[in-house]
Amino acid sequence: MRIGSPKEIKNHEYRVGLTPESAKELVMQGHEVWIETQAGAGIDANDDQYVAAGAKIVDGPDPIFAECEMVVKVKEPQSVERKKLREGQILYTYLHLAPDADQTKELLDSGVTAIAYETVTGPRGQLPLLKPMSQVAGRMSVQAGASALEKAHGGRGVLLGGVPGVMPGKVVVIGGGVVGFNAAQMAVGLGADVTILDRDPEVLEKVGTHFEARASTRFSNAANLYDAVTNADLVIGAVLIPGAAAPKLVTRDTLRDMQKGAVLVDVAIDQGGCFETSKPTTHADPTYVIDDVVHYCVANMPGAVARTSTYALNNVTLPHALRIARMGWKDALAADPHLAEGLNVHRGEVTYEAVATELGYDYRPTAELLR
Question: Is Nucleotide-binding one of the keywords UniProt gives this record (predicted)?
Answer without folding.
Answer: yes
